[in-house]
Each structure stands twice: as C-alpha cells, then as structure tokens.
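Why this split exists: single-chain examples teach little about how molecules sit against one another. For that reason, every record in the complexes split bundles all components of an assembly together and asks for one structure covering all of them. Below is a record exactly as it appears in the raw files.
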Amino acid sequence: MLLKARDIKKTFPVPGKARKKMVQALGNLEIQQGARIGLMGVSGVGKTTLGLILAGLVRPDSGRVLFHERPIHRLRGAQWKHMRKSIQMVFQHPESAFDPRWKMRKSLEEPFKIHGLPMEKGGLESVLEEMGLPLGVLDRYPSQLSGGELQRAALARALCLKPDLVVLDEPTSMLDPLTQSRILAVIQKSLERRNTACLFITHNLHVAKAVCSQCYVLEGGRLENLF
Ligand SMILES: Nc1ncnc2c1ncn2[C@@H]1O[C@H](COP(=O)(O)OP(=O)(O)OP(=O)(O)O)[C@@H](O)[C@H]1O
Ligand SMILES: [Mg+2]
C-alpha cells in the first residue's frame, strides 16, 4: 500500500476566541500505486487540509498517515527526503505557488537541486512540452503568465520528479471550460504514462468521473464512498 491514513484529526483555533477550537475530523483513506482517487465536499470541509496532511506538509493532531507502512511524520533524513520526492502537491491557487521574485526556470529547476538529481539535457523542456507550455515561459516571472499557464507550470513542477502520488488540489478550477478540458487530458495522459497515483480534489462531479476510478465525499468529518 502506497499511503494509508487512519483516524486523522486536525484542529484549528477559532480567530478571536482563544479557548475555542474547531476540530476537523478527516477519517480514513487508502491509496494504492497508480490509483486515481477523487475527493469532493463542500467548501471549508477540510479537503485541502487532508491533502496537505497526506503530502506530509501539515501534521495532524491525531491519527496516522503511513507511507509504505511507515508513519510519515516520523520519517527522518534520507527517508523523509524520499517521501517528499515521492508525494508531490499541486496547490489550489497557482498564483501563489511560485516565488514571485524568481523566473520560472529557477522555480522549475529547484526540485532537482533540492533532491540532488541531475538535470537531464532537455528534461525540463520535455516536461513543459508535455504540459503544452511554450519554452519562453522559463524566462518570465510568475506574474507574466496566465492562470492556465501557471497551472500547467505547477503540474510540470510536480510531475518532473516522477512522484508515486500527486495531490491535485482543484488543479483546473480557475480556468475556462475549454482550457480545463485540455489540462485534464494532459493530466490523465501524464498520470497514465507514469502509473502515478493521484488524490484529485475537485468540486466537479463530471471531472471526478472522467479522471477517477474511485471517489470520496468528505462530510461531517467522514469520508463516504461516492463511487
Ligand atoms: N492554517 C489554518 N489556520 C486556521 N484555520 C484553517 C487553516 N487552514 C484551514 N483552516 C480552516 O479549516 C477549514 C478547512 O479548510 P480547507 O482549506 O481544508 O477546506 P476545503 O475543503 O479545501 O475548502 P475549499 O473547497 O474552499 O478549498 C476551513 O474552515 C478553514 O478556514
Ligand atoms: Mg481547498
């Protein structure tokens, strides 16, 4: 099993009420290699929070996330680094997912540097091509890209490390329907080609049905199987 979450809970403070806490129960989930899992639910129910917890980016207050049967938040050193490479996240808001002071080339080369991986000649260019992005974007700042281009760049950055699992947090929500369907096709092709598992967070049932083999709804702190 690639990833297993058990009895995850996360609590956030309620602004202005120091003693009051809002508890988000987020339930149980299992993701196998290559699985396409959808996650739906009304706004504010905790989908992004669950995605961040599964990607090891936020620590739950209680419960366990197991990555290849090992508790994710207890991984250290090389094992932690391996997990961070194997699970990538595409954030909900692409406009704040890149450092505004860096040209896109630097942002897209960064994952290779962090993980000490060699940049194959033309490697970056071929991922951009796969995402349908012109190479010219590499020499621009994030503010000089359109929403669709930024979402494609965020996907390129997440997929270039060939992760085992990618958490896609509403990766097409900001786009017009035509661009949406084009990017969805790109995502599907790319996941299939590499047999990458995904947790696909979306508000759109048609999109969930097109991409996912299984879909959950997060409601009242429980994950219910939708299909
Ligand atoms: N860092 C934080 N500090 C305080 N509250 C937070 C934090 N992150 C999330 N929350 C709260 O937790 C709840 C769940 O937020 P989350 O972003 O996970 O919802 P969501 O299901 O992804 O919503 P949406 O569909 O609007 O993206 C919300 O009420 C939000 O305000
Ligand atoms: Mg969200």
